[in-house]
Amino acid sequence: MIAEHTPLMIEVAEITIHNSVYTTLFFDFAIDFRPGQFVMLWLPGVDEKPYSLSYYSPTRFGITIEAKGRFSRRAVALAPGDLVGIRGPFGNGFDIVSSPHTAVVAGGCGMAPLAPLVTKLHPDLCFIHGARTKEFILFQDRFARTRHITTDDGSLGHKGVVTDLLAAEIQHRTVQNQHQFDMVYACGPEMMMHAVFTLCESHRIPCQVSLERYMRCGFGVCGACVCGDRVVCTDGPVFDSAQLRNMADFNRTALLKSGRAVPLSDYVTWRCQ
Ligand code: FES
Fold this sequence. Notes:
Layout: E1 8-11, E2 14-17, E3 22-27, E4 38-43, E5 47-57, E6 60-66, H1 70-76, E7 83-90, E8 102-107, H2 111-118, E9 126-131, E10 147-151, E11 158-159, H3 162-175, E12 183-187, H4 190-202, E13 207-210, E14 226-227, E15 230-231, H5 232-235, E16 238-240, H6 241-245, E17 253-255, E18 261-263, H7 264-271
Parallel strand pairs: 8-9, 8-12, 9-10, 10-11, 12-13
Antiparallel strand pairs: 1-7, 2-3, 3-6, 4-5, 4-7, 5-6, 13-16, 14-15, 17-18
Helix pairs in contact: 3-4
The protein binds FE2/S2 (inorganic) cluster.
């Protein structure tokens, strides 16, 4: 059991370096978890950041880190045996729909929170993963048989974006008079998730997306992660279609660490520093 407020110091049990972009830290520690939830990772003297669980078993969990800023570069430089602080898990997680007619759409490291979800869904799901280039396709071997890959530059799979494939699959089901998707799950850049949401709305398909905002407390007290009238760390990070329809800041604005609201593009630039 890990307290909400106080990080528990846990040893890094194992590290997997997937490629030059992604690294997973594993912890041999039992926590209650549902796919889509996240933990706060504290590096003493550096900072504390939220990370979704990308691996989960009753005795071990893993978080996958994209090395792109000061904090994440320090995190991927850790070694087995190093101590870090963990709080959580936090958030609501995904509602699991057991139908074979589900789609999972991952963009870049948005694959991380979706990976434990995929293992809970029907094996006949439609699973689409896109990224800028093949280097940014996470877990290339983990779901190799079930995934449709897209890359912006065509270096792996279909050249284009994930919504190309999702739109084609929705269209195919419509034209063939087949059962339409009962649920579409998405995680990745917010612009991508908004495109998935818009596509789903136009076909009356329900979706759930996992939003990302700057987080400080993780349990609904500080207000750092507010998006519209929602608190992402406790109301989310997973939001469904009905909630997204009324979320004015979805794909528009986010709060910096200072609390200042900025266009989402400025927030993304700041977050990567
Ligand atoms: S991180 Fe503090 S309210 Fe969400």
